[in-house]
Amino acid sequence: MTFSSFRPVALLAALTGWLAPAHAQHWQLQYFYDKDKSTLVLTDLRFTSPSRGLAVGSIVEGKHHKPVAVVTSDGGANWQTVDLQEPPVSLFFLNENVGWMVTTDGLWQTRESGKDWHKIRGLPAGIFRVYFTDENTGYAVGAKKKVVQTDDGGQHWKPLATAAETPGAEKYSAYNWIAFATPKLGIITGWNIPPRLFPQQFPDWMAPEEAVNRRDTPHLSYSLVTSDGGKTWKAGSASLFGEVTRIRFNPSGKGLGLVEYSNAFRYPCEVYQIDWATGKNETIYRDRRFAVSDIWLSSDGTAWLAGVEVLGQLRSVVPGKVEVLRSRGTDYTVWAKLDVDYRATANNVVFSAIDDRNIWLATDNGMILKLAQ
Fold it and tell me: What pLDDT digit, counting tens, does each position of 62-80 carry?
């Protein structure tokens, strides 16, 4: 099985494992937006050093959305709220100071760790995420098979022609993630999801019985792979249940991937290990009771999973208790559950890490937690 097929073997085989308690380390609440009649929906989190970090999102009060960032310069002991001009979608930082923020209306850059932003014109509409290999060379992915690249820091963008080679109608297709294992080896993932033959009349929360009984169907999963630092890319596609939503690499090039499924599938997600040497991937975790929304891989190979406890068959409607699992070693068969502050609930959780001891996570209901001893 190769990266071009990009199909986790989890779809073909079962995984057995067990959870072991871990008491030494725990997740401590550092920031909590707790105000009446409004909520802070955090969409992304980045720490650029052990002391400097920021999370971005929107304060929601009724129909009003106010874009904001919360910034710290002392490792999370204190946080400052900074107004943003456009709703944020995602963040990418090249180093401690220089970073980019994708918004619903374009691209912004900071050279002050997120304390100040200026808009860069020219990014095509519908972009979800950017990735820069240096201050000039970058990639952006988004809806309608959009993959564009820049060699002047985002001032000008040109299409990556290989992205259009994948099968499937453009209007039902998207690329959503970019990751590099080494300066030479990189991957971009995406999908094609056509509309249902019988369109869904109501959202899941309004018709829970229909959502639970709805049959999940496979669709195309896309991969674009480079082995020469982005000079050339090879396109691949395969029929797959679920969407590849995360790929993380550590400095040695080892990787983890996350596939998330719909409410109709028997598992909320699967996590798999990536082997660049062989091009194969192998499932290391799946559980009906735990919906993973982000993954991390430490430099020593320790794997981290963050998500929420599944309360019923209809997932992602009611917030669940935040859970974090950790597995040390190379086979990832033993997972330890770490203590998480009891107040932490969410539908979605994201990681950010500087090293093996400085790891944070943010929830989509305004909480930021740090790994503590």
Answer: 889 999 999 999 999 999 9
